[in-house]
Here is the input.
Amino acid sequence: MKVILVDDEKGILDGLRVLIKRYIPACKVVGVAFNGLEGVKIIQEQKPDIVITDIRMPQADGLEMIRMLKEAGCQAKFILLSGYADFEYARRGMQLGVQFYINKPVEEEELCDCIHQVIEAIKGEQAKLQEVEDLKQEVHNRLQEISLRDIIDVGSENTAYVEELLQMASIPIKGNHFVCALLEFGNTVESLKEFALEPVFRQIDQALGQYRKVYRFRYSGAQIAVIAAHSGDIAYKKLIGSIQRLKQSLYRELKLSMTVGIGTVHKRAAGISRSFEEARYALSHKVIKGVDVVIPYPEIMSLPGTSHSISEDMVTRLEAGLDNMDEAECVNIIREIFRQMEAERGMSPVDHQLQCLNILLLSVRKMSFLQLQQNNFLGRNILSLEGISRIRTLDDLKQWMVGVIKGIITFKLANNIPKKKDIIAEIKEYVKEHYNKQISLAELSDRFFINPYYLSQLFKQKTGDTYLNFLAQIRINKSKELLEKTDLKVYEICQMVGYSDTQHFARLFEKLVGYKPSEYRKNSRKE
Here is the structure.
């Protein structure tokens, strides 16, 4: 603790300096002054933690010095020295916030006790300030996570909206390149418990410390989303090397094994969702590449058999059949796919097998992470190289594919997963009932068994609006009703309709309504 002494008697200053050095090693005298004006100057320069000052001094007494320093924003704690039993001095000191007094002549024990009390008071205030700063940082991190989660789930169509979300979360845009990775730990949600997140985050920050900023948060279950932003280009090979070293250090330090999908680098903020979708798709190819590996998106695009790709239209039809749990339609599409494969020349048995795995991965890309985790039939018994590698003929492979599709439909029926044609109506009703809760696209995807990225696209296709706009409009309409009919404070209404940040709520309200919340209430009551 830094201490400054102020007294017009040199002997007292020398004595105090000796006592503090001898008996209070936690403190160091960094300056002395002989009057109040000198004290103001040196205290403003040195910014001490504690000031011990006499009351009666020439030019400006101790109380006047304290008043000037307080007005200038000084945060030091003051101890008043006085040889006078004068209540008026004590009263004026208390009005200035002084809590500590020592009578002259100064006794060693009294000085030590008083300074230790001041030190404890300072530490208590510092702890409270740190709690506030930690809370602010937690709120800021949570806001960033919500914004980034919305961006990676909502898609890249609305560039302006993506940039608005990034600005709201204080994430720099100009001149930045972005790339996403999706880390998956083990095979179950229990593989990554809450207590393990912070050490994992520290390892991620250290491994990717060369980039301007790294954002990381739990995405779903045992998955962590990582978004790196860098001023200038991101060298892709170096990024892969950094992820490889991260994988090694996590196993070495925390005994955690992970599989990673990495998207490509994008120059614009709107590319974040695209890069994340690439990372998610790359991660799904662990059934081909194996687990505990790093899978860059460009690598899966050059897999054997991809040059003989089935049309996107065919895959879309298979997706629709699975969405509607139409087994007969799915089987017909598989037969058509195999007729095309039979007509292809130059495809080896391995090409055929990998082609089938690619088709299946594409056709289940709309399924949520939770759904895939729960579907042991799909995830553990069928989508494995060990099972498929024993198949040698196209006919056997076709029957294997039919078995997979039937298994997926059986799972969906057993878990009462809604058909695609009903899901958006159900989601809208659910949101209208639970608008005051934190309901992200990822949480809806787990509840309704659909991948969040595709849920966002489907919602926009069916309603003409984004999910986030739909949710915001419901919340703002409810807040208008509360402003009109109640005397609740704005921050209370903000929390009641599902927002935690009052400033964000106020900005959004003004954007959608044209008035600030307080102005809207005032105008509505005039009518």
